[in-house]
Amino acid sequence: MKAKTVSAYTRIFILMAIICSAITYLYLIVFENNDFGNQYGTDVLKIDQAVVTFENGTEMLVSNLPQSFTSEKVLSATYQLPKTLDLKHKSILIATQYTSYNCYIDGESVYQYKPSDNRFIISGGRLQKLISLADKPLSNQVTIEQTARLVSQNRIVVEPLIAGERLDIFTVRLVREDLFLVIAIFLLFGLYIVMIMAKVFFFRKNEYGETLLNVATFYFLYAVFLISQNNSTQYILSILSYTLYTLHYLVILIVQVPLLLIFKRGLAPQKRNYFNYVIVYVLAVLFIQVLLVYITDIEFEDVKLLSFFSIIVSTLWIIYAYFTTSESDKPDKDYLMLSFLPVTVGTLLVIYIKLTLNHEAFRNAINIQLLLFIVCQFYYATCIYSNLANEELKNAEYKRLSMLDFMTGLKNRTAYIKHLEDSDVLTKSQWIIFIDLNNLKILNDTYGHEYGDTVIKQMSTIILELCKTKYDCKAFRIGGDEFILFVEAIRVDSIDEFLETLIAIGAKYKYIKPLELDYSIGYAFYDATKDNLNDVINTADMRMYREKTASTTE
Q: How far apart are CA 116 and CA 237, in angstroms?
C-alpha cells in the first residue's frame, strides 16, 4: 500500500475517532442524570435514593445518585433499605469522595473514617468501605454523615449504597462495572511488555527504539491511571488508598512527558527545543504541586487547576506540532495522532470528573474511550509494523546492493572485507584461489573498454557457475580484473579436481571474438588449526602473480 493511501485511511480513522468522542460527550450530557437501574442482581441491591439532611436541618429526598452538593461543609444521607431485604450477615458498600464520615445503622455508629494524621494526603481521595453486618438492622436504615475536607471548596458527593453478600458485591463490582477496565489494564500491560521486548531485541539501535520506549512508558502510565480509578482495585487495595490517590494525580501529569517525547522525534531542531521547554514546564508544575501538598494543608485535588492548565498547554503544543510538521519530516505523524486523540479525550473526561465528581457517568463514558483507544492502538501498531517491515526490507536490500558488483553479479570488495571480518571464516580450513585476467589493459586499448567489460563478465559467468556446483564457493571481485574464491576443505577432494572443474566450465565460455579468454590462477591452503589467514591469502596472491608474469613473458 502506498504511503499516501495509508495516510488517507489514517485521517479517515481520526475523523471516526472524533465522531466517537462526540458521541461519548452526548452520552454524558444525555444520560449522566438518568437512572441506570438500581438492581445489580438477585443478591446485590444498589440504593440510589436517599434523604439528605443539610447542616441547617433542611431535608431533601434525592434520587439518581450520585449527586453533588456544593457550599456544604457537613451533611448526612439516610438510605432506606427494603424491608424484604434480609441483611443479616450481609454487607454494605460505602463510597465517599474527599470527606471524613461516620456510618450509623439503627442510630449506632458502626464505622468512622477520620482525617489522616498524614498531612500529605488528608482526605484519602475517593474511598470505598465494605462494612459487615452481624445482625439484621431493626429499621433497615443506614445514615452516612459526611464532612468536607478539601481546602479549596466545600463539596460533598452523595454516592449510591450497595447491599448484599460480601463476595457478591465484589463480584458485581468487578464483573458488572469494572470488567472492561480490568481487560483494558491487562491489554495495556501486555502492550507495554511487547513494546519493551521489541525495543530490547529488535530496535535497540533503531531510531524507532526511542519512540517504542516512550509509547511503552505511556501504556504503563495509562494502565496505572486506570488501576487508580478501578472500583475493584480501590476495594482490594483499600489499605493503600493514599497511594492510589497520589498515583492518580501524579500520572495525570507525568503521562504528558512520553507523549511530548513521542511527537518530538522528527521535528526541526528549533521545535525540539520548544518541546524541551514544555517538558520542563510540565515537570516544574509537578514539582510545585508536590511541594505545595507536602508543606501545606492543601491536597492534589485543591491544585487541580494547575494540572488542567499543564494538560492544556501540552495538548495545544502537540496539536501545533502535528499541523506544522510535514509528512517528509515525520511520515508517521498521523499514526501518532491516533494514540494522542483518545488520550486527549480521555484527559478531558478526567477534567470532567474532577469538576463534577460524578464517577458513575465517568465510568460509562471512559469505557467507550478505552474501546476507541485500544482499537486505535492496534491500528497504530499494525501501521508501525508495516512501516518497520518495509524499512527493514529496504535496509536489507540496500545492504545487499552495497555488497554487490553490479556489472558481474559477484560480491564486491566491500563484501570481501566483511567476509574476512567474519569470525567463522577463521575457524574453517579452506582453499583460497586467486584468478586474474591476462592482458586486460591491452585488450581495452586494442578493442575498447566495452570488449574488456565483456571479458570480465565472461570470467564472472564462469565463476558463478562454478559456485553453483558442489564446491559452493564464496567468490568476490576485488579489483578490475581480479577475483578471489574461498572453498571449504570439506567440499574439495583435491585442488586438482577443483581446477579441472573450473577449466571444464571455462571451456564453454572461453572463446570471445576475436580472442580466447586467458587468465592466471594462484592458490594456497588455509589450515584453521595453525595458519594465519592473511599470510595464506598473500601466498595465493603471490603465486597468481608468478603465473601471470610467466604467461606474459611467454
A: 17
